[in-house]
Write a structure and sequence with these properties.
Blueprint: H1 2-15, E1 48-51, E2 57-60, E3 67-69, H2 72-80, E4 87-90, E5 107-108, E6 111-112, H3 114-120, E7 124-127, H4 132-140, E8 145-147, H5 153-167, H6 170-192, E9 197-205, E10 208-210, H7 216-223, E11 226-228, H8 242-248, E12 252-256, H9 263-267, H10 276-279, E13 283-286, H11 288-292, H12 298-309
């Protein structure tokens, strides 16, 4: 059972599909300001062909009006680009912004409900990944499918641009990306002058699992002037031994506030008293949606991680 729970949590992190409940009191950042006047029209015309995350070329003869999204990050992007009212279906895990909670539900952790999707008559279905069978059935029903599953910050920006182009919000996408890039650079500059700190990020504790090279959070830790002690692991989401954790002796210990643990649980684990992060109280439970969803709030996630790695850099800011 423990292995099963750990596997489920890892899949959630990798694909950013299952969102936990919003915890507004943990959000320490302010929304990005994209209210400035729109720039000159980018000039998107239809038919429009977009290459998605799976390398598929998807052509739209006209601007989609009815939108369905099965992934929280894509849903957040659509709302951020001003087209949330055109969503006619989302997954049960699309919980942000609050308006998404009232949109018709077309799927859950078990996958999209084909009958409900087809009944919604969407002009485009935004997903992260689908089985070949489901993809074939949807396309056979005449529903264009765009797979949006970024693996890093740059791919997130491309995803925002692609979705903006498809739904007729290219100018809004550019403003959003520019604001996110500016905030990203500001965070990097704030942390830049400090000595890097070693970091461990826990996905699950029994067995102990973490983030390695190629993972989204590994990139965020590096951007925040931290050094992931598992950056030399053999996979993006490896199991990690307690002995190795103690020997690497991280200065900062992070995990998501997923409801399965508390700081007291972490401090009380056998052997953890030998870890510097535990000795100094540098243990942080971070908002799981903000730090894992590759969408408009991912730079807020970067800021949360940066503030955990170098809290001294943000004093008075």
């Amino acid at each position: 059972m423990k292995k099963l729970i750990a596997l489920i949590l890892m899949v959630v992190l990798v694909f950013s599909i299952v969102g936990c409940g919003n915890k507004d009191n943990q959000t320490t950042t302010t929304p990005l300001d994209t209210s400035e006047p729109a720039s000159t029209e980018v000039g998107i015309t239809y038919p429009l062909t977009v290459v998605d995350s799976a390398g598929r070329s998807v052509t739209f003869d006209q601007m989609p009006e009815r939108l369905v999204s099965s992934v929280p990050s894509n849903t957040e992007i659509i709302y951020a680009l001003g087209k949330g009212e055109q969503l006619v279906g989302v997954s049960v895990y699309c919980n942000y912004p609050e308006e998404a909670l009232s949109v018709n539900k077309i799927g859950d952790y078990n996958g999209p409900n084909l009958e409900l999707i087809i009944d919604a008559k969407p002009d485009v279905f935004f997903a992260a990944w689908l089985s070949d069978e489901v993809l074939t059935q949807l396309e056979g029903a005449g529903i264009p499918v765009l797979l949006i599953n970024p693996g890093n910050i740059e791919e997130t920006y491309k995803s925002i641009k692609d979705i903006g182009d498809v739904i007729g919000s290219s100018d809004e996408a550019k403003l959003l990306i520019d604001a996110m890039r500016a905030k990203q650079e500001n965070i990097i500059q704030i942390d830049k002058g400090y000595q890097p700190k070693t970091v461990f990020y826990e996905i699950w504790h029994d067995p102990l699992m973490t983030v390695g090279p190629g993972s989204f959070i590994n990139e965020l830790i590096t951007m925040a002037n931290g050094v992931n002690i598992a950056q030399d692991a053999e996979s993006a989401y490896p199991e990690y031994s307690l002995e190795l954790l103690i020997s690497k002796n991280p200065q900062v210990y992070m995990t998501s506030d997923d409801g399965f643990k508390t700081p007291e649980d972490i401090f009380g684990r056998p052997g953890y008293e030998n870890i510097e992060a535990i000795k100094t109280g540098q243990v942080f439970l971070l908002h799981p949606d903000i730090t894992s969803r590759p969408g408009p709030r991912i730079i807020d996630g970067l800021e949360m991680i940066a503030m955990a790695v170098h809290p001294e850099a943000f004093e008075g800011k």
